[in-house]
Design a protein that fits this description.
There is one protein chain. With 298 residues, this protein is of the alpha/beta class. 39% of the residues lie in helices and 15% in strands. The chain has twelve helices and seven strands. A seven-stranded mixed β-sheet has the order 3-2-1-4-5-7-6, with helices on both faces. The radius of gyration is 20 Å and the shape is globular. The two termini are 39 Å apart.
Length: 298
């Protein structure tokens, strides 16, 4: 199964500060690039548990007695680690967003480059697809989705246009969706706006923001003291949530202070934000929007 180079490979795994006999989790296995690097640094007593909800990722399973691959969404990380007898881990790695493999398979419907059925499901077993979102959501739901997840100022007009167009017939393919929204896609900005529209639909289909919040709230409980979280995000919605959670231990508002004005939060930031070098972006275009943050359990 063809997968591209993992983004920020060395930096992300370095961020975990791996102990040879430690237990680690890769919640976004994909092509297994990050997992293989973790295994390279583990000793015989080390253990790595990986998660991926995509059936295709199972074809990349690593034949190693120290390795376990769980075909589930990372939002259920604590439940499935407990099932495998693991209560505490020394590090968690997450590389969010869509894998190159998912983008490059036209039939998955993730890429604006191909004409394909509206799908975008990371877990092919899920019922909700891009087709259902585009054809069944009401105007208010679509407007909210495009505004919040696509950060599109024209969200109300785009939602209205989709609802009007589907009165004639269902919008079944990416090419039909593009045709319906043509007036919002000026030539020089077409790809950028289309990418925002696709991002909004994809986040909704896969409940990415809800899954991310559920995952992050489990991290402090799962990490042993001194354990690390190494996290790559690809758009500002994700990165803001991660940044806030590391700083405040919550997604909104400010944590309570004690009588001395100190704040108790479960994680502390390690180092500065890391972004790929121009050399890495030249080799792997997917890396261009990647942001890596590392945190440690206090």
């Amino acid at each position: 199964m063809e997968y591209h180079n993992p983004v920020l490979l060395k930096e992300t795994v370095d961020g975990l500060n791996i102990k040879e006999d430690g237990t680690y989790v890769d919640v976004t296995f994909g092509g297994g690039g990050h997992s293989r690097e973790i295994l390279n640094r583990l000793g015989k007593q080390g253990r790595l548990i990986a998660f991926d909800q995509d059936q295709d990722a199972l074809l990349n399973k690593i034949d190693d007695s120290r390795f376990t691959l769980i075909n589930e969404n990372f939002r259920y990380v604590k439940r499935f680690l407990r099932f495998h007898g693991v209560k505490k881990v020394d590090g968690i790695l997450a590389d969010f967003g869509v894998s190159s493999h998912q983008f490059d398979k036209p039939e998955r419907g993730f890429s604006i480059r191909f004409d394909a059925n509206l799908d975008m499901r990371m877990n092919q077993e899920d019922e909700l697809s891009a087709f259902h979102v585009v054809n069944d959501y009401d105007e208010e739901q679509l407007k909210k989705m495009f505004y919040e997840y696509g950060e599109l100022r024209q969200a109300p007009a785009i939602a209205r246009t989709i609802v009007a167009a589907r009165q004639e017939d269902n919008i079944k393919t990416s090419e039909q969706l593009k045709t319906v929204l043509k007036k919002y896609l000026p030539p020089r900005k077409e790809n950028k706006i289309l990418a925002q529209i696709y991002q909004a639909i994809r986040i909704e289909v896969n409940q990415e923001i809800e899954a991310l919040k559920e995952f992050l709230t489990q991290v402090p409980e799962l990490l042993d003291k001194g354990g690390r979280l190494s996290f790559i995000s690809y758009h500002s919605l994700e990165d803001r949530l991660v940044k806030r959670f590391i700083r405040n231990g919550m997604f909104e508002g400010e944590p309570e202070k004690d009588v001395f004005g100190n704040v108790e939060v479960p994680l502390k930031k390690i180092g500065k934000l890391i972004i790929p070098t121009q050399e890495e972006i030249a080799i792997n275009n997917r890396a261009r929007s990647a942001k890596l943050r590392v945190a440690e359990k206090l």
